[in-house]
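tool=predict chain=A
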Amino acid sequence: MIVVNGLRNCDTCRKAMKWLAEEGLEARLRDVRIDGLDAAQLDRWIAAAGWETLLNRRGTTWRKLSEVEKDGVGAPEARALMLEHPALIKRPVFEAGGGIVVGFTDAARETLKNA
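tool=predict ok
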């Protein structure tokens, strides 16, 4: 089973769930705001994909942060921000076959088909 970590009201997460169903791939959406995100899970994602890949600097949540919070963000600050504001995580984060895939690109779709 593929676990799709994201937000229930995220358009991209909804598109991903629809695509997975059309491909006949069993998936479950896990809303990181409602279901929570623990530090160990985030640390696994960071180890696999890197904090730069996971941190969504294009969304509303990032824009709402103060300049002090955004200035000079490095690995420890990014980790703390993502734990405090799970919506800062690029979506969706797929957990499949023991690995993770971040985003819903063509390359991500191909990886998921082969997972």
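The beta strands are 2-6, 27-31, 93-96, 99-102. The chain has a mean pLDDT of 95.
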